[in-house]
Structures are given as C-alpha cells and as structure tokens.
Amino acid sequence: MTSDGVIPVNIEEEMKSCYIDYAMSVIIGRAIPDARDGLKPVHRRTLYAMRELGNTSDKPYKKSARIVGDVMGKYHPHGDSAIYDTLVKMAQPFSYRYTLVDGQGNFGSIDGDSAAAMRYTEARLTKVSEELLADIDKETVDFVPNFDESLQEPDVLPARVPNLLVNGSSGIAVGMATNMPPHNLREVCEATCRIIDEPGISTEELMRIMPGPDFPTGGIIMGTEGVRDAYLTGRGRCVVRGIAEIEEEGRTPQIIITEIPFQVNKARLIEHIANLVRDKRVEGISDIRDESDRDGMRIVIDLKKGVAPQVVLNYLYKHTALESTFGIINLAIVDRQPHTLNLKELIHEFLKHRVEVVRRRSEFDLRKTEERMHILRGLLVALDNIDAVVATIRASRTTDEAQTALVTKFALDEVQADAILKMQLRRLAALEQQKILDERDALAKEIERLTGILASEASILAEIRKELVDISARYGDERRTRIGYATEALDKEDLIEDKPMLVSLTSSNYIKRIDLDTYRNQRRGGRGVIGMATKDDDGVENVFVANMHDYLLCFTDKGRVYWLKVYDLPEGQRTSKGKAVVNLLNLDGDERVTTVIPVREFSSDHYLFFATRGGTVAKMALDEFSRPRQTGINAINLRDGDELVDVKATDGEKELILTTRFGQSLRFHEEAVRAVRRNAMGVRGIKLRHGDTLQAISLVENDHLLTITEQGFGKRTEFDEFRGHGRGTMGVRNIVVDARGGGVVGSRAVSDDDEIIVMSASGIVIRTKVEEISIQKRNTRGVRIMKLDDGDRVIGFTILDSDEEDVEEEE
Fold it and tell me: Signal sequence span per UniProt (predicted)?
C-alpha cells in the first residue's frame, strides 16, 4: 500500500481472478446441475418455494404469478421471466420425461408456442417432485442462508428419485456445457439396485438394463455405440430418428410421422420440409398436413404417384431434423466442482447422497422416537402410581412445585414430569392406558428398525434399494424411445428397382424419365400418342432407354461431360415436360446437353467414340470418365464453330457407320482411329459436302441399319450394302433425301425383333416393331413410319432391344 492508501494491483492477475470467480459462479450457481438431485439452483428454489407455499399435488392449483413472486422474493433474486420459464419447462411433457410441475392452462407446445402469461396459468407440484422433497424436514440436507440471509434454503434436495438420469439436464456455462439425456425411471431404478447388489458390475451389463436414453417424444435411437461411449466416458452421441410409417393403401402413398426426435420443433420441421419441396430439392411430395391433436402427433406427407416412399423418407432423414444427433455431455457438480461422469459414477454420486440422506433421516427419526419413548415411560410410571401422583400434584401449590415433587418422588426427569402434568384426565381410562402400552411396543420395534439401519452402510443401502423398488412401482412406465440397429445412410440404389426407363431430352434441355409400360405397341404408320407437352419453340431432341441404376454421361455441345444417375431424373407423366437440365447439372452459361448415354461400369477396355457436327471423330477409354466432378470435365477439344453431336460406347473391336444429314454414310473399323486421352482434338471421320453435317454414329451390329428422316420415312438396309471405305472419305449414299422425306434424323443398328420409339418435335410418340419396317436398298426413300401433322417433324428415335423386352414380359 502506498502512503496515500492506494493498493497497487496487477491488472492481468486481477482480471484473471475476477473472471474465474465469475465463471465459477455461473458454473456452480446457474448453469450446471448438481449430481445429487439433478437440479440447478433455480429449479431447486422453485420446487422448495412451492412446497413451502403448500402448493402440493393434493392441494388446489395456485397462480403461477404467485409462485414466481414467492421464488423471486425469498430465494432467487433474478428476473421473473427466468423463473417462469423454469416453471413452464418443468410442466411440459415434451421437455421433461417425468414432469416436476403440474400445470393448468397454456404451458406452450411442441410447435414452439410460448406459454400464456403467468397471471393466466396455474401450477402445483407433481407426486414425482414431492419425492425429491421428501424428508426435507428431517435434517436430511444442509440449509444455507438465502440471498439476504433472512431465510434458509436447502443446499440440495433429499431426492428419492435419481432425477439427473431420469430427466436429464442441459446448460451452457463459461467454457463448458452439459447435455444429459433423460432415461426411463424403471430402468434407472433397476440399474441402481443392480449396482447396490453388484458394485463391480460392468457397463455392458448395465446397458442390458439401460440400453439408452428414453426421450419424452419417443423416436428411435439408431445404434448403441455412441450411447456406450457416453456411459463409459461421459461423452458420446446418439442418432435419434422420428417414427414414420408408409401407407400405400390409398390412391397415393403417404408418409405418416407419429414421433419426432427430442427437442425438435414440429412446426419448424414441417416448414423445412415445405421449403425443400418449394426449392425442388426433394421430389415426389404433393402435400404436407399437420393432423396432430390431443390424442397424439400425426404429420401426413402425401406423395405423388410412382414415387418410391422409402426414398423420400430417407431423404427427409438425411436433410431434415427428422433425424437428429443428441450430443451427450454428462457434466455435473460434484463437491462444488464440475466433473464429467460416466454412468456408474452418476449412479454412485446419487447413492452416496442417498446414503447420507437416509443416515441423517434415520438418526433424526431415532432421536424423535427415543424422545417419545422416554415420555411414554414417564406416563407409564404415572399410571402405575396414579393415586400417589394425583395426591402429589394436589398437594403442590404451583406447577413448578408439582414438577419438582414428581421428579423427586418417582425418579423422573423434568421432561417426563412435564408430560405427566400435561396429561389429560381421559388418559386414565383403561383403553387409553392400553393405547400407551401399544404405542410403547410400536416405538420399541421402530427403534430396533432404525438402529438396524444405522448399524452399517449395507443396511442403509438395503433401505435405499427398498425405496427404489417402491418408486419404480409407483411412477415407472414403459419405454417410449426404441433402440434400433445402427445403419449407414441408405443408398438410393438399394431402394430403387433397376428397371428400364425411357429417357427423353428436349432441344430446350428439359429431361425426364418415363416407365416404358406407358406406351402400348402400335403398328407401323400409326399416329402415336402424346409423349411430352412442349412449348411452341421446343421439341424432343434425344430419346433412349436406360436402366434406373445406370450412370448418365451428359455430353454438351461444348465438349464437356457431366454425371447423373437415371433415378436422379424426375419421373414424369406421359405428357409432362420434364425438368430443366440446368437444375440438375452445373452447366456454364449457354451450354446445352446434346447427347446422353447410359453407362453401368467404367472399364479401361471399353471406349467412347465421339463425333462432331463437322465430321471429326475421337476414341477415348471409358475409364477416362470414371471420376465425376460437380462442375463437369472436358471430354473433347473442339475446333472453333464445331460442336459435339453424338457419342457411342464400344468395346474397341467395332465397325462404325457415320451418317450425314444429306444421306451419306461411311463405314470403317474403329481401329482406324487410335485411342487418345480425354480433351484431345480428334481426327477427320468423314468428308462432308458444303452445307452437310454429321448426324449420328451407328455401330455395325445386329441385323440391319435403320435410317429415319425428318418427315417420318425410314427403312432398314443390309450392312453388306455399305462397303468399307477409308476414314476421312465421303462414303456412299444411304437414303434418298428430298423435299418429301426431309433430311436424315439418324441411323441405328437394329435387330429384327427390336422395337423403336419415334418422337416428333411436337411431342408425339409412336412405338412400333422394327420387323414392320421394310428392308430396302440404299438408293431409296423408305416407307412411312409415322404420320405427322403439318409443320411437325421427327427429331429422334430410340431402340428397345429384345433383351429389354424380355425383362418387361417377366415383370
């Protein structure tokens, strides 16, 4: 200290000291529960104040405002809102596994609705909370002064119920937090009894009794590994799923959610699902309704036809709070210090507390019983000498003189003499005398019992065990949360039938998949049915068949490639337009998908054969495209003004036929084109006349080459009609191209028992057998395959080969 009375202080040390004091105050006095009764100070003070107010379960409700005022004025000098919020939460059956307050009025909802103002609601203690307060008047716990030292409040409650495990707790302190899940009362009591019987029992054995938390909102815990970690170390995590059932009996399938994870807001969950549907992040949901009532929770999700309900449900589990993780942190106050406790330590701390409570309660009861026994002995002496006692009292001038005479004459003490003087005359009756004798005998037995309890800790533990069995029988109930097997995130492919689908792509890049059974077989020359609703300036450009599990390599006009799975495509109706590819792929600017081919596996001995509008070709190994990226990769390097028009999958030993719009076709072996790495430039495949463009690549396989023109004409041609030419030449005429037939749309190798699906620019689709299309020479126009309206044109066709037809028949 300086001469002027100033004490120099190191500011750093002072800040440290002050902050540590503040932190410990928050930890001990606010945020972390006591390991003994499982309560924080505000909860303990609220329950104690309600008891002192006579607000017990067998009495009428009292206004919450009155309770809050008592708590705040006597024990908890903080804001009334904090106390009321505590009261409200202890009354919410979706927050507490076993509620400690019985509320009457609006105490909030699982939708996040707040409780009514405290002046409108009423409350009282529940029977379970009374068990926490039982024996508090028997000197079982220490009392400490309240905030102004005008009253005494309990430092901890006696807590017959292992409340910390039963109801759990959560709180954020300074530098630490606790998050303890609730458990089933029956299981906790049984596990505690088992530890009393077998102190060395393993955690694995305890988990057979307590398999995991039991949340008030139910749900299912996926696997026990995280729970086991928490039981062993005090920290772990458990994945909790809501309970949902799939109903497919009605016109459309439904997902019915009847339970949600603990601490999940139902209204926000529904809102989140609705946002996912609005943003088209989840497909197949047509409506969401909340049909919950006083009988239970019921969220109904209507699905569209043809949607796999399990896939939608799995998506909801993955992307919404319908599946949540509960991080377990078993942090509690032990000896006024925060400690992370495992399961056995939590139970031991409760048992240690109960041993002390039962010991102090038994000592209190024994003392009171012995005091009463002492008085009864004096009364019995008086009854045995009633005439002398009466004479002595009558001979005394004052009460004090009478008391002194009784002590002297009958060898009594002052307490006994006082009791005799206060004894009523009616106690002299014979029956009243017998009651005193019966009471003496009962007290003797009680003294013997209490002495036996206090004889050893084993006797005290036996008493605790008896109480736990009674608590379990009176308040225990069935488990609400199920324990399930741990599962990885479900793979969509495990839930989706691998069946062939028709995939169509429009010139405006709308894509969809349709079940092949949508189109019935028609004879050649039919008008077909509407296959897709398109805009006036849009038309179907590419159609093909792929299995649901296939990869789709989406090649763009800029020579880039993107990946999709067939099941990721939206399933549309026959007349629906589909979904814009830009919503499925991360395309750049005006980039447009021109070719989509299905691939099941990426192997190095298979190839992709590329053809560009300008007649350039390139061959690349299929495994060059086995590593997908969200932003796509470069497939082929294009010259200025050129674009990619077609890609075919080959095995390296195929002959190919390139077909142009003007009807020229060039046949050559793919060995004439050496394999290059991805993003190469390629070489000339066919020499083009001025104005001509390359339309398609066909593999020389199956029985014939099918060529179709824009005006619906087509024919099959023998492959022998096309003699081999060197790569880079003009080839030979394939089909007559004139105003009536129009330019070539494409050519494909077909078998006689195949079927084809032809689609027009206006969205008309026809499915017909290949054998109905005649075989003609090269220098012909072909036959009418599809009748078209004025201004309409054929823009694409796909082949249904015989293998795919066999699959359909088996299904």
Answer: none
Mean pLDDT of residues grouped by 10 in the chain (811 residues)?
74 78 72 92 95 95 96 92 95 96 95 94 96 94 93 95 94 88 96 94 91 95 92 94 88 91 94 90 88 91 85 88 94 92 95 96 94 90 86 88 88 88 76 84 93 93 95 94 72 65 76 70 50 45 76 86 84 71 79 81 87 91 82 87 85 88 90 88 89 87 87 90 83 87 87 85 84 88 88 81 41 32
Q: Is 120 a catalytic residue?
A: yes
List the CATH number of the domain containing 677.
2.120.10.90
Distance CA 806, CA 236 (A): 53
Q: Is 683 exposed, middle or buried (0-12, 13-18, 19+ CB in 10 A)?
A: middle
Distance CA(744)–CA(712), nearest Å, equals 10
Distance between start and end Cα atoms, the chain: 97
pTM for the predicted model, two decimal places = 0.68
Which of 586, 675, 686, 674 shows the shortest CA–CA distance to 646? 686
Q: Which domain holds residue 248?
A: 243-321
Query: What are the beta bridge partners of residue 69?
Result: none
User: Considering 297, 321, 345, which residue would you say is the last residue of a domain?
Assistant: 321
The residue annotated as part of the active site, out of 22, 84, 96, 120, is 120
Q: Where are the alpha helices (DSSP H) in 527-609?
A: none
